[in-house]
């Protein structure tokens, strides 16, 4: 795309561009630190406009202030205010509203892109599903989120990057990106839209699970009549999600871990082993086995979403890519530890937590206890960001913990104290501070013991124990 084309699309005013109007731009960045090329345009976030229109932090720096004025390795600066004092003749495109310009250009580029776009949302598993799909597509040029940046601004930034013409775009979207204020799915226009599940998260922002389901279903509004909706058939509100998807497309598919009458995709078998899970899928040539290097039952669901996506893209599933895939380092990571006197295995899952994620972690722990001869211990911190629903949501753990394979259960944070008081016939203790819990945890970790450490990453001191 030429510099002058960009100016025409966003109706901006070019300055310092004489002789550079036909300079080619083939990438865009909204984060200055990633601008590394004369073919990259920097969309400079205006502090006021981006805070007002995109919810950017009011404390975030002015985009122009981040520019190194001695840097000549910039193809174009798109900004509301001219940058004075540039040492090199870098073209600048002055616009009245940088957010409006961002959206206008992003939508224009998306409309020129004709390869498959896959969008993923859900209360749990969306990042892992996105990463696995991208890993399975590693033989192709794939555009995906940078890190897990999945808010509205990131969706538009990724739409700009479609100018690089990847073979596939795999984009996870948060509630922020498809809420009632603005549904970016309408502009992203995915060919495949995936909902990995509805769970008790975001209760500090939203009032009910029904409201969360309604918002997640908005991703389907971006589908056309040929689009494909892929839904976790085992999640809460699965039927509602299917009904909402059917408003946009007739191609609605569900996946389940077990065969059911209404399942479109499920494995022939799931086998839990020490440190990994094996899935069997019914392929044309017979049952094909796939090894997942995880103990997460939730990751089984994520894998099914990814496998179904590849089937709908008419692509083979590479078993080596499945086996080599590793999710986030702290997703149910089994860590063998050798002390001076004995060996211990920790399952560190303190990266984040929702109710489904915590239940998933406990189920994963249960699947592994048969392989260890020492104490089986569950240590928990609270699920954060639950607001007024905290007591109600944490109460859902009572039955799960009661029927767990744990010999000992250790709990931190006042949110878990009522849970401890309701559990019978278990060695369970609530601790007023992390040091007391850590002392008991280290004492209980004997030879060949297994300990699950699970909590949210924020709002609790528990991750410091891990």
Tell me what the structure shows.
There is one protein chain. Strand 7, helix 5 and strand 8 form a beta-alpha-beta unit. Helix content is 31%, strand content 21%. It is built from 17 helices and 20 strands. Helix 3 crosses helix 5. It is globular, with a radius of gyration of 25 Å. The chain is of the alpha/beta class and 466 residues long. The chain has three domains: 96 residues, MurE/MurF, N-terminal domain (Udp-n-acetylmuramoylalanyl-d-glutamate--2,6- Diaminopimelate Ligase, Chain: A, domain 1), CATH 3.40.1390; 212 residues, 3-Layer(aba) Sandwich (UDP-N-acetylmuramoyl-L-alanine:D-glutamate ligase), CATH 3.40.1190.10; 132 residues, Mur ligase, C-terminal domain (Protein-Tyrosine Phosphatase, Chain A).
In short, what is this structure?
Helices cover 31% and strands 21% of the residues.
For this entry, give a set of tags:
ligase; 466 residues; Glutamate ligase; 3 domains; Udp-n-acetylmuramoylalanyl-d-glutamate--2,6- Diaminopimelate Ligase, Chain: A, domain 1; six-stranded parallel sheet; nucleotide-binding; globular; Mur_ligase_C_dom_sf; UDP-N-acetylmuramoyl-L-alanine:D-glutamate ligase
Beta-strand level of the residues, as a percent range? Answer: 15-25%
CATH class of the largest domain: Alpha Beta
What count of helical segments does DSSP give? Answer: 17
What integer is the average pLDDT?
A: 94
Q: Any idea what the shape is? A: globular
CATH superfamily of the largest domain: Mur-like, catalytic domain
Low-confidence stretches: none
How would you sum up the major sheet? 6 strands, parallel
Q: N- to C-terminal separation? A: 49 Å
Strand order of the largest sheet: 7-8-6-9-10-11
Q: How many structural domains does the protein architecture include?
A: 3
Derived structural class? alpha/beta
Strand count: 20
Helix content: 25-40%
What is CATH's topology name of the largest domain? UDP-N-acetylmuramoyl-L-alanine:D-glutamate ligase
**Rg calculated over all Cα atoms:** 25 Å
The assigned CATH architecture of the largest domain is 3-Layer(aba) Sandwich
Protein name: Glutamate ligase
Keywords: ATP-binding, Ligase, Nucleotide-binding
GO molecular function: acid-amino acid ligase activity; ATP binding
Organism: Staphylococcus gallinarum
């Amino acid at each position: 795309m030429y510099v002058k084309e960009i100016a025409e699309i966003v109706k901006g005013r070019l300055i310092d561009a004489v002789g550079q109007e036909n300079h080619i731009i083939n990438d865009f960045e909204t984060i200055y630190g990633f601008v590394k090329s004369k073919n990259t345009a920097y969309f400079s976030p205006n502090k006021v406009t981006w805070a007002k229109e995109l919810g950017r932090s009011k404390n975030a720096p002015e985009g122009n202030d981040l520019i190194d004025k001695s840097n000549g390795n910039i193809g174009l600066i798109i900004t509301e205010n001219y940058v004075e004092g540039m040492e090199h003749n870098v073209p600048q495109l002055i616009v009245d509203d940088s957010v409006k310009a961002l959206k206008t250009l992003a939508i224009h580029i998306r409309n020129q892109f004709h390869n498959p776009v896959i969008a993923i949302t859900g209360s749990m598993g969306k990042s892992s599903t996105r990463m696995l799909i991208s890993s399975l597509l590693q033989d192709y040029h794939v555009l995906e989120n940078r890190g897990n940046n999945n808010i509205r601004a990131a969706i538009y930034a990724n739409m700009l990057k479609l100018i690089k013409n990847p073979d596939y775009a795999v984009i996870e979207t948060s509630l922020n990106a498809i809420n009632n204020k603005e549904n970016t799915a309408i502009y992203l226009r995915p060919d495949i839209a995936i909902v990995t599940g509805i769970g008790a998260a975001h209760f500090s922002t939203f009032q009910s699970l029904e409201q969360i389901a309604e918002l997640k279903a908005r991703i389907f509004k971006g589908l056309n009549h040929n689009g494909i909706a892929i839904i976790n058939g085992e999640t809460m509100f699965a039927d509602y999600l299917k009904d909402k998807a059917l408003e946009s497309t007739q191609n609605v598919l569900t996946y389940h871990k077990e065969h059911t009458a209404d399942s479109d995709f499920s494995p022939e078998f799931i086998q839990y082993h020490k440190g990994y899970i094996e899935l069997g899928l019914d392929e044309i040539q017979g049952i094909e086995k796939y090894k997942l290097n995880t103990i997460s039952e939730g990751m089984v669901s994520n894998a099914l979403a990814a496998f179904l996506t590849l089937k709908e893209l008419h692509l083979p599933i590479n078993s080596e890519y499945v086996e080599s895939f590793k999710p986030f380092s702290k997703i149910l990571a089994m860590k063998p530890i050798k002390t001076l006197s004995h060996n211990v295995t920790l399952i560190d899952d303190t990266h984040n937590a929702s109710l489904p994620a915590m239940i998933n972690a406990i189920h994963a722990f249960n699947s592994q206890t048969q392989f260890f001869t020492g104490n089986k211990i569950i240590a928990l911190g609270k699920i954060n960001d639950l607001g007024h629903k905290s007591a109600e949501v944490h109460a859902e753990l009572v039955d799960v913990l009661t029927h767990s394979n744990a010999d000992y259960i250790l709990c931190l944070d006042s949110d878990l104290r009522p849970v401890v008081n309701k559990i019978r016939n278990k060695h369970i203790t609530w601790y007023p501070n992390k040091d007391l819990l850590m002392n008991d945890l280290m004492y209980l970790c004997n030879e060949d013991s297994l300990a699950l450490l699970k909590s949210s990453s924020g709002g609790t001191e528990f991750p410091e124990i891990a």
